[in-house]
Design a protein that fits this description.
By secondary structure, the chain is an alpha/beta fold. The protein has a 10-stranded parallel sheet. The chain has a 7-stranded mixed sheet with strand order 4-3-9-5-8-7-6, with helices on both faces. Strands 1-2 form a two-stranded antiparallel ribbon. The two termini are about 55 Å apart.
Length: about 1000
Amino acid sequence: MASQQVPHTPDAISKDETNLLKLLKMGHGIARSVLYKIFLWGTMQKEDESVEHYLLKTQGYSNSFYRKCFDQYQLKMMSDKSKECEFDVSTLFKVIKHTCGKLETSIDVWTTENDTRLEWLVTAIKNFRNDHSHKFVGVSLETLILQSMHLKNLLRGALKVAGNLYGKSDEVDQEVKKMEDDIETVRDQHLIASDISSYEAVLENEKLKHFLKIEGAKELREKYEDLCQLNPVYFLESKGALLDVSMVFTQIEVENAGQKAKGFRVPCHEILTFCRDNTTVKRKTKVQSPEVYLIEGPAGAGKTTLMKYLKSVWLNKNESILGLNDYDLLLFMECRNPSLSSFSQLLCQLMPKTNATYFREGELLKFTLNLKTLVLVDGLDELNSHSEKLFLDIINQNNKNLVVLCTSRPEKARHFKMHVPPTFHTAHLKIIGIADNKKEEFVRKYHEEMWKHGRSKQDTENLISYMKNSESHLKNHYRLPLNLVLLTWLWADDPCAVTPVTTSCELYIQTHNLMKKKLLERLTHHEDACDINLQDLEEKIKDVMCSIYKAALLSLNKDAIEYLLPETVDQIKATCKANSLPPRETLSAFFVIKVVEGEEKVSIPHKLLHDFYAAQCIVQNLFSENQKSKNQSLVQKLAVFLSMENVDPVIKQAVLSNASAEISLISTAPKPGSLKALIDDLCTTESGKINKYQSMLLHVAGIIYALHGPEVQEWLAMEIVELLRESELGVRDDNQWFDLCELTKNDPVVISHISKHISKSITITDKRIEAALLMLQEAKPKEISVSISRKTKDIPELQDLMTRIADCESQLDLAFWLDFWEPDSLPGNDQQVRIISKRCSLGKVVCHVSGSVLAEMQGSSVYLNLAMTSDLAAQEVMYQLCNLKPNFNLDGLCLHLTTNVSPGVLKKMVGIGMLCLVVSGVQDSSIKTVCEMAKAIMPQNSILMDLRFPQAEVTYDGWYDLLKNVKKAQIGVAHISIPEEVVLLQKEHDFLENFAHKKLCIRCAFRRLGKEQMREASFSDN
């Protein structure tokens, strides 16, 4: 389809454009003056109170809601009382909406034409200004007259309605006459040359901004079409296997790592708005600072996929990511790309047509900085000398219209702090991976897309069933999207090859075997290799693999992450030719090959695979794998020779046995110190540190235990641990050692050496119980967090774990999630909690215990989440809560009650700082009971931080009754949280949200939560 013809910009301003300038002046000037007068008449601010102070302090807006309502420019203006007279039309529209009394909040009232309603009149005035601001073709004299009359009618109507509404009728006539005189003056006056020249320059700038906003964005969207295709397994199927990221993307789970609300789980669709509302700054300045966000996550966690998804959402203009469509432009840079070193170069590369058509040299950057722009920076951990200059050039623009969103692996997150000035507002998130409740959806989507593209013939449900059954030992591994993709491809090829897999490294080994298998299949039909027998072909591929592994390690040494070093590629090709294998066909089985600026470049598809290849080089050298392969080949060739010479079978067998024994002496088993010596010899760094090899070393451990487990001696286990310690594994977080436990299949010797490095804090999940039992024989961490997602009655080893934890006498957070959220009729955690209650100081506790066990607990600052399912249990617990011991200081309490509990048995929880109430299984008929429960536990002048309703089956009428009852009973509640699956029309939800925010005794957030969010602890770290 042909693109729309862009209007020509004349050299001099025309009469029609002069008419347009007059309408612009009316919209920007006269209309603004009228709106300002209405604002002064209707605002409920005190005389010396700024809009910011009024909304945040007097009206009680939360910081996040306040920032959501206004843009950065408006926020800055509203913080200063003296700036109110400078408010533009857009700002006045919003402040009238939020500060003036007697106005409705319903969207319909503001958007439905009604010249008796101030809400619609104010909207129409704003729209008049917007409509003419975005026109770049002049208007006729007749249109000028008609439009000025239309504006006059709108302004007259607004003044009259506002005058009646706010008791200013005596001022209306004077204001109307002044407005009408001003419009007629502007309409009839002749613009002098200086005015025309000034407006001409403004109009030209506005046109260029408009063209960049429309044509530049269009060009970016066209460019991102191809960049939103996913093929993380290019090496398995290089042709026709591209999948649309929007078709397979499943929400990645993100956690806040910043100072504010640390540990809070952030819904993926709220990433941008959460960052915007939770920025911090090290050094404050009077000037509005730019915003830069960091999302960190391990290789394979989905950082690049998330970037592709953001591009996909923006180019399709959908609402999947809140706040994304607020940006006029979305720019993207890859830190691994060495070809760009300035922001101007990036802009010209992304928008070459727009730049050539509309802008003179250097102007594209100037006008980009005038638009609201989001810059995606993928892979700070892969910065090179050129991309570092580009990143710094973007940062050094120091422009409030630019928001920069970066990704990085955790070990290189320091690059973010090094490059971002302390005056910038920053936010820091961590990608955890795919949420537990989204893994099935991800695999299902991906496999079904493979079905559509003819890449699989296996049954999707069988794959889902396998994944569920294997989660007990691969749960953490399945959090990484790349690993789920590899699992899906392996299943599509051969389900039997997947079944024995128990560690993440074994999954990579199986994937690697699949790559070699597919190469073997292709080579048997290739004209240059089809004459080679299968056995010889396998040996030749092994020889090439040794060269590939070495190339991966050498490139890792030189930080050549994007592309392999040219000399290593030449060596691989030479090995291919020496073995009579076609180089390009062979390389394409393991690498991505593309032409960049006329030169062939070879890259490994993913950083995790790069580390895996490099690790194979280390392991092969350690166990002399290449020598073993050559030895086997010699014996096989000797056998062929003896057969051809018709040697007696008995003599032949004796000769082969002796030859095997003699040749095996050539290959020696690894000796103490040999792994450390190999790393020192093969892994070179200028600083002498081996931090960058951490992921590779984990793969080394995984490969050793997967392929040589029985051969591992204690010295080798110790060297593995010490090398990883040297790479700073566990320095930031003791929990990183659990990755090594998994890869070594909880080898007691490895865990014994790990225990020496555990001192700070560990988190024990269902998956980590076996490792923790061994670890806590020697380790005594200061802090322990237990987070169990299954029913505790189904975990027999939990008793022993509690005993080990009690021996540590640590600060303890204890969460038995399912026992709290789905409590049995009788308390299910008495036995476990009783073991640790007298020896550990408790922090956050999530459980279902009886009153007698509660009486034994101790802790100086406890946040208790406690389930109760009957009147008898509630009476016991209430008694203990009202008679706490001096060594049990309760700072926060969240009670989970079922509808079986009577409000009459509950007591007021006096002296507790934070109080939350969860009531499950609520229906319309039990709404009144919920309010009685809340009143029963709340002391006078207190508030509920949260009122949650998991598994509720409540209609719109029921929720409305709840809010009315809460209002009538004067119950103060900060949040009312209902299930995401509750059926509500959008207008019904909006009404309930507005009612809760404006009509209850304190400002309340009425929100919908998904199951995972609903089941998070009610008390976060902040």
